[in-house]
Specification:
The structure is a single chain. The protein has 418 residues and is α/β, with parallel strands linked by helices. The chain is 26% helix and 14% strand. Strand 6 and strand 7 (149-150) form a beta hairpin.
C-alpha cells in the first residue's frame, strides 16, 4: 500500500487508518482513526527494542504514552532504566518519571507501563531537573524507510522533542525510534516535510528493524511562529519555556499574535474603532497582518472549536490551521495564500453558529480593537453582525491544493483545505 501522487499528510493518515481497520490489523482501542494506531503484533515489534545498541547504552529513555508502545515502556522498566513519559497533551508539564514500587515484580512493572500505571506510579519532572534523555521513542501513523514521519496531526510529538531541545535534554545525536506495523512503512513525499517535523533513526516492526540513516536535521528547538495563542493557553510549560527564551533575547513571536500593535497606538485610536469589527477601507488595510488570514468574530459565548470546524467544512472552506480565541469570541483562519483567504471570505458570508451570524472578513481589514480585544470576553457594544457586499469581493479563485471532495463541489466553489 503506497500513497498516490499529489497526496497530503492527512490523505496518508486516512489511507493507513482505513487499511488497518479493513484488514483487521488494528487492536484496541478502535477505531484507530485520529489515533497513533495500536496494532496486532505490537509486542513482537517491541521485542527488537532492547537489542538495539542505542537501548543498551541508554540510561534514561522517553517513550510516548500511546497503546502500541506499552511493551516498550515495560522493557525499559524491566531493564532497570529510567522511564520518562510525556504528560497527556502536555497539560500538566512535559515529563512524568515512572517509579515502580520497591521489589516490583514483572506483573507490577507491566501495570506501571499501562496508562493507569503511568498515572499511579509517576512523579512530575520540572524544567529545572536538568534531565538528560539518551533515547526517544515516538508513535507514528506513517513512516518512510528514509526516516520521515507523520503523526496523528496534532503535533505533540514534534513539540515534545522541540521542548526537550530547548531545555537541553536532547542533542542532535540523540537517537529517535518508532514502533509501527509493517503496513505503516510507506513512501512519504519529501515536499510534505516541514522544519518542525521530527524524523526517526530506527523503525521497529513485527518483521523488521530498519536503520534509516536519516540525515535530515531534527528540529533545533521550538519554532514559536508555529505556536498558536490557543496552544500557549493550554500548555503551561510552554509558557515557561517561552519566558525563558524571551529573556535570552530570542524571537518568540507566536503564529497568530498581532504584530506592531503597541499600547500607545491603541490608546490613541478613535473611540469609534472600539464599537465593532467594521472593515477598514481597502486603502487603509493593515499591512502588518498576513493577507492569508481570515478573521471570524461574534462567536457565541458557549461556542466550541469543533462546532466552528464542522461549519467551515460544511461550507467547503476548511483552513490549513485554525487559531481559536474563544474567550474573546473570535478565531483566525489561516489559508495557504491570499487568494484562498479571499475565496473563503466569499464562501462564509451568512455563516452562523447557534443564534449568531458570524462576522467574517480578511484579518488585515480589521481594526486594532478587533485583533487585540481590550475587554476579553465582552461583546462589542452596538455591534450588528454585518454581511459584506459581495460585489466588492473578487470572484472565487480555484486553488489546486488537494482533490475536492463531493461535499466541496456542492458548496460555493471553495475547496476544502483540511
Amino acid at each position: 500500500m503506497e500513497p498516490s501522487a499529489g497526496v497530503s499528510k492527512q490523505d496518508i493518515r486516512e489511507q493507513i487508518w482505513d487499511y488497518m481497520e479493513s484488514q483487521n490489523l488494528a487492536d484496541f482501542p478502535r477505531p484507530v482513526h485520529h489515533r497513533i494506531p495500536n496494532f496486532k503484533g505490537a509486542p513482537r515489534a517491541a521485542e527488537h527494542f532492547p537489542r538495539l545498541q542505542a537501548f543498551k547504552m541508554a540510561r534514561t529513555i522517553k517513550v510516548n504514552p500511546d497503546a502500541p508502545q506499552k511493551n516498550a515502556r515495560f522493557l525499559v522498566l524491566d531493564s532497570r532504566k529510567t522511564l520518562l513519559v510525556p504528560t497527556p497533551r502536555l497539560r500538566t508539564g512535559l515529563f512524568n518519571k515512572i517509579t515502580p514500587p520497591p521489589g516490583a515484580t514483572k506483573d507490577i512493572l507491566r501495570k506501571c507501563a499501562t496508562s493507569q500505571g503511568v498515572r499511579s506510579f509517576s512523579t512530575p519532572v520540572g524544567l529545572d531537573a536538568r534531565v538528560q534523555v539518551d533515547l526517544v521513542v515516538v508513535g507514528s501513523v506513517a513512516v518512510s524507510e528514509k526516516g520521515w514521519r507523520i503523526g496523528k496531526g496534532e503535533g505533540y510529538a514534534d513539540l515534545e522533542y522541540a521542548m526537550m531541545v530547548s531545555m537541553g535534554a536532547v542533542s542532535p545525536e540523540t537517537p529517535v525510534v518508532t514502533i509501527v506495523h509493517d503496513c505503516q512503512v510507506v513512501d512519504i513525499p519529501e515536499a510534505l516535510l516541514e522544519d518542525h517535523d521530527l524524523t526517526v533513526d530506527y523503525i521497529l516492526t513485527p518483521t523488521r528493524v530498519i536503520a534509516t540513516g536519516c540525515e535530515r536535521p531534527k528540529p533545533a528547538g521550538i519554532i514559536w511562529s508555529k505556536i498558536s495563542c490557543e496552544m500557549m493557553e493550554k500548555i503551561p510549560v510552554l509558557r515557561s519555556l517561552r519566558s525563558r527564551e524571551k529573556q535570552a533575547g530570542k524571537d518568540v513571536s507566536l503564529q497568530d499574535e498581532p504584530r506592531d500593535l503597541d499600547a500607545s497606538r491603541l490608546q490613541t485610536a478613535p473611540l469609534r474603532a472600539l464599537r465593532g469589527p467594521q472593515a477598514l477601507p481597502l486603502a487603509t488595510q493593515r499591512e502588518d497582518v498576513p493577507a492569508d488570514t481570515v478573521y471570524v468574530g461574534n462567536l457565541p459565548r458557549d461556542a466550541r472549536v469543533s462546532e466552528l470546524k464542522t461549519a467551515l467544512r460544511a461550507h467547503g472552506a476548511a483552513p490549513l490551521r485554525l487559531s481559536w480565541q474563544g474567550p474573546q469570541r473570535r478565531a483566525f483562519l489561516h489559508y495557504p495564500d491570499a487568494a484562498s483567504a479571499q475565496q473563503a471570505v466569499s464562501c462564509l458570508q451568512d455563516l452562523r453558529l447557534g443564534a449568531n451570524t458570524l462576522r467574517v472578513a480578511l484579518a488585515r481589514q480589521q481594526r486594532p480593537s478587533d485583533l487585540v480585544d481590550t475587554r476579553p470576553g465582552e461583546p462589542h457594544p452596538n455591534h450588528r453582525p454585518a454581511v459584506a457586499d459581495l460585489r466588492q469581493c473578487p470572484a472565487p479563485v480555484p486553488v489546486e491544493l488537494q482533490r475536492p471532495t463531493e461535499q466541496d463541489t456542492q458548496s460555493c466553489g471553495c475547496m476544502s483545505l483540511s
